[in-house]
Amino acid sequence: MTGGTRATTGSGTGTAPRTAAGSSKHTGTAEGSSGHAGRAEGSERHTRTVEGSERRTATAEGSSGRTGRAGREEARWTRAVLGPGGRPLDLLTARFDRHRYAPHTHDEFTIGVSVGGSELIGYRGGQLRTGPGSIVVLAPGEIHTGGPAAPEGYAYRALYVEPSLLAEGTAGGLPHFREGLLDDPELAAALRAAHTELSLCPDPLEAESRLPWLLAALTRRHSTARPDRDHVPGAAHIADAVRDRLSGELQAPPSLASLAADLGLSRYQLLRAFRSTTGIPPYAWLAQYRVHRARGLLESGLRPAEAAALVGFADQAHLTRWFRRVLGVTPAAYRASVLPPGT
Q1: What does the angle CA 4 – CA 105 – CA 98 come to, to the nearest 5 degrees?
Q2: Which end of the chain has fewer CB atoms surrounding its CB within 10 Å, N or C?
Q3: How far apart are CA 24 and CA 204, in angstroms?
């Protein structure tokens, strides 16, 4: 699980493989959320391949794009933005049969989830052997390698996370992960789902609602950092304030970071207060509120594309995805059912 902003030649191999079965294990329920919001206005997306990529390109030994056999030497980069006007976070989706990374480092934490096959990663003088569902955490500045550990190759999803983001939800200080390979199936599933959905449609508010929350769960469970308190005083009042701001700024909602600052909170505290009060993350609440408003506009005679723009969805497809999720039908079908024929 590699690729990075800078490559440093060195040795990152060892002799004692660490397998997923012997990794640090956690079986608690992941504090994540599922859901899929389409691409929002102002989101940024970049798709690149390993060859010719502008950043995070590691040298492949004996690999040059697609190779014979199954022809699966593929990597795709996507950039999510953490909130409107927020900082970017890069996502990598990779599937390799033969690709081997040269020893290199990253400026960020690499958080990976294995989704198929097995990869052998040289790290901290030893070797990590991944399996489907295992989580890999590689610290900034640590030399590592990567390559296939089995004939079927390896596939993974990776996030490249600034260290300060992993400090959210802790009592202070940057986290340290003693283990590079973690066994936490529910958190792995939540990370994989968020990565997949945000790679397809990187909505900024969705990214800011989901990724910092899941990364805080990773840090609180598996690092040496001391968790911040779970209880947030005045949670119901905080949730009301967030709902008021989001509902009042449908077409250009503020970032959660700015909302938290206005309320004298950290972003993690805002997310915890909102979720403990409503049971869902802010982006999901806003999407459902937009559907409610769009429903009234459709009943007044507006067409789906017009309603989508007025309530802040990126486009009609974005509205349709959420409308079906909430009401079970498409906006067009709903409009046809409530208006006189031919309207």
Answers
A1: 65
A2: C
A3: 32
Answer yes or no: are the C-beta atoms of 223 and 168 closer than 8 Å.
no
Q: What is the rounded distance in angstroms from the CA atom of residue 158 to the CA atom of residue 92? A: 5
**Nearest one of 247, 256, 253, 341 to 292, comparing CA atoms:** 247
Give me the amino acid identity at 208: E
Is 160 in contact with 108 (CB distance < 8 Å)? yes
| Tens-place pLDDT, residues 210-250 | 999 999 999 999 999 989 888 999 999 999 999 999 999 99
Contact (Cβ atoms closer than 8 angstroms) between residue 219 and residue 170: yes
277: exposed, middle or buried (C-beta count within 10 Å: 0-12, 13-18, 19+)? middle
**Backbone phi, then psi, for 51, in 5-degree steps?**
-75, 130
CB 26 within 8 A of CB 217: no
Q: What is the C-alpha to C-alpha distance for residues 117 and 239, in angstroms, rounded to an integer? A: 43
For 151-194, how does the pLDDT look when each residue is reduced to its tens digit (9 = 90+)?
999 999 999 999 999 999 998 788 999 999 999 999 999 999 99
How far, CA to CA in Å, does 40 sit from each of 89, 90, 303, 310, 315?
16, 17, 20, 13, 8
pTM given for the model? 0.80
